[in-house]
């Protein structure tokens, strides 16, 4: 009888990658939650700030494209190991400078390196899920959400006690960088064992790897997943950028209460991702994606129709529970769709993370200003609902195609 339990190497690789997701969630939250402090430190005008903020996801997309080429020569684990400290140091640099050019340089480095980091982390996650033979991607993104909550909490404490940015960032970076480097010793991305005992992971490290990894990633097949990724991040950026303003200006909540929805959104995302893998194993990815889509759309509808602040918070809570499953499952689906070229597929798909982030906030803001914010909330609702049209793209290949060709299978190891 074949032993289908994950090996120690796989378990260590899974834990070490979760550490990296956690660290990145904390670092990113420490940046985005202190944007007003950065603006004050460098004297960035309100007119110039959007250009600075838009440059980060644009450069992140460039970093993701570059990573697709880099991992043809260097293992994703090595890329992640050495790029994660760069992201953390760029955060410290952003909080330590005094001149505007220093902020621009720090954010440019942050953007380029975070694109490489996001791509390589998810490449490793897809590799490990393939080796495990069951859904584990949501767990990695749960670690990211937990890191985001920790980072946002530390940022709140720094703002509450008026701690200078460099004083807040320096000890955290000094702690997080060694932790991430230490954990990176156990990344499992080369010669990763297949739990079925069939040798190395298809597409990397085996005798057939050269032919498999050279398989083209057809954008026509990948496009549905790219659109879902964009829709999910349009919804995410709507909550992160507009939930506080919506509660305060439209639903007439207090300033203190207006800060609650995003925190609740992050917590519910953590809960949904923590238990989401169990749902995928039991009901399948398609059912989980459809349920998440309907829940998120229902949440936006509740927000748009909310008579008061508490109903609005309920809506944002539903959005968090629904959206949290879409992004991890989209990466996982890309890995299944292109099993011989999953790294390239993940790198290209990752670009649409930043496309959604760039489009979402300005789109809702423009519609809110020209029309009204209640109506604007219906736009991310409609876009998220469009995911239902593409839900079949999340099915295992054997369930999608009836052409008689052999397709990759996964084995539930329990």
Description:
- The chain crosses the membrane at residues 15-35, 47-66, 78-97, 103-124, 136-156, 168-188, 283-304, 310-334, 346-367, 373-391.
- It is found in: Cell membrane.
- The protein has 414 residues and is an all-alpha fold.
- It is 75% helix and 0% strand.
- The chain has 18 helices and no strands.
- The radius of gyration is 21 Å and the shape is globular.
- It starts with 7 loop residues before the first helix and ends in a 14-residue tail after the last helix.
Brief write-up:
The chain crosses the membrane at residues 15-35, 47-66, 78-97, 103-124, 136-156, 168-188, 283-304, 310-334, 346-367, 373-391. The chain is mostly helical and 414 residues long.
How is the topology of this model organized?
Blueprint: H1 8-32, H2 35-42, H3 49-70, H4 76-96, H5 100-132, H6 137-160, H7 165-183, H8 209-213, H9 219-250, H10 255-258, H11 260-283, H12 285-305, H13 309-323, H14 326-337, H15 342-370, H16 373-376, H17 378-385, H18 397-400
Helix pairs in contact: 1-4, 1-5, 1-6, 1-7, 3-5, 3-15, 4-5, 4-7, 5-14, 5-15, 6-11, 6-14, 9-11, 9-13, 9-14, 9-15, 9-17, 11-12, 11-13, 12-13, 12-17, 14-15
